[in-house]
Here is the input.
Amino acid sequence: MESSKIGLIGLAVMGQNLARNIASQNFKVSVYNRTTETMTSFIEAHGSDNLVGQADLKEFVESLESPRKIIVMVKAGRPVDLVISSLLPLLDKGDTIIDCGNSHFPDTIRREKELSEQSIHFIGCGVSGGEEGALKGPSLMPGGNKKVWSELEPIFTAIAAKDFSDKPCVTYLGNDGAGHYVKMVHNGIEYAVMQMMAEAYDVLSKSFGLTAPQIADIFEKYNEGKLQSFLFEIAVPILRQKDDLAEGYLLDKILDKAGQKGTGRWTAIEGMERGVDISTIVQAVNARIVSSRKDFRTELATKYDNPSVGKQLPTEALEEIIKELESALYAGMLLSYAQGFDLLRAAAEEMKWDLNYAEIARIWEGGCIIRAQILNTLHAAFEKSNNAPLWTIEDIVADLQESWGSLRTVTILGAQSGAPMPSLSAALSSFEGMSSARTSANFIQGLRDSFGAHTYKRTDREGTFHTEWGN
Ligand SMILES: NC(=O)c1ccc[n+]([C@@H]2O[C@H](COP(=O)([O-])OP(=O)(O)OC[C@H]3O[C@@H](n4cnc5c(N)ncnc54)[C@H](OP(=O)(O)O)[C@@H]3O)[C@@H](O)[C@H]2O)c1
Here is the structure.
């Protein structure tokens, strides 16, 4: 039997769809799963000359063309190490393992190092797009040895989504963990964008008493303008979904506890570790943490009487607020990207990754969860400015200058309405701090010097100073 071009291990939703995508592009793929029944029923449903299943790991490895290329698409963490360990005795020098799961980048760096010592290549490739993306075309973020990547490129290029110019949403990002790092930051930005959308939903509901389908009409209009994106597209039917188990709309019955799998938290920690302000992302993670404390929140809600709740604004104000909110969301999202790209820049410098920010914005234009019109704006801005920091690029400066006031208006409205806006208000504070020549840190320095003799510098002369305060 003809050997397969590539193998894939891990047949949960992402692995199944990625395998079908590869086969549909005319690359023969062998698949294997720890639980054999999953593989058998998958092959019964989708097997073909190009998509073959193996119940035995050794036979799976032997079914592959040499040097072998094996995608691992299993649960992130220990399962990836277990799969690699089980493969190692069956592989030959020069074979390649490609981890397409959401692995934490330090694990990818470690695995690449350990495997290269055994002459096995390792590529860490971020995949975004959920199950539909995996099937119809994901955004792919590979990192690892560039020469090895070039051998995989034809397959990954064929299965990737397309950007706004119909080019594949895949680009080589850099050594070892670069691909998984970029995917992690992508997910962090995804947290911030989703949180800002939730804040918009909340303020419309709390300030004007709008129902879910009324908010759907507003979001549908937003999706026709500069906020056009996959997330606004899917938000509209979510807001309009009727409950089939009870009266009313389903969204109103969904428990207000948001889950998380770790990539947002990893990004937030990275921001702290590298000294980069990514407060929109950090606050989005915090908002999920607050949401998870449902019992405690419910108890506190009986103890405190929020003076803002129930004070709805006159509907005449709504039309203007809808426009302000659109502009505020645009500013907030631009700022969450500016922060995310700042983190990428800091990591690239320290890790010696030659990241191309225009290319990163481009490969996020299609396939992935944050795909949006705004990414085309960022792609063009980075290209025009030769990858300057986003905040400094002329077109972005003009956009932020124009939408800044709306961001302030909307965060004030949130405060007045009892609608918390952790990510939008973090965007405003961060922007106002970053665009101020002078902050309040002089006051912090005074306090630090007073209680701990930490010294300070002056604005009007060179040197380091300490004062006996109060003397
Ligand atoms: N779901 C998404 O939208 C999405 C999007 C992007 C990236 N990802 C990432 O893609 C990867 C796969 O995601 P998923 O949602 O399809 O599946 P998942 O639920 O994360 O993982 C399930 C798969 O992992 C296998 N597995 C778990 N423990 C194992 C072990 N100890 N040894 C061997 N195999 C083991 C399972 O095999 P059994 O069938 O035998 O249990 C199954 O094939 C994850 O890293 C995920 O974070 C997911």
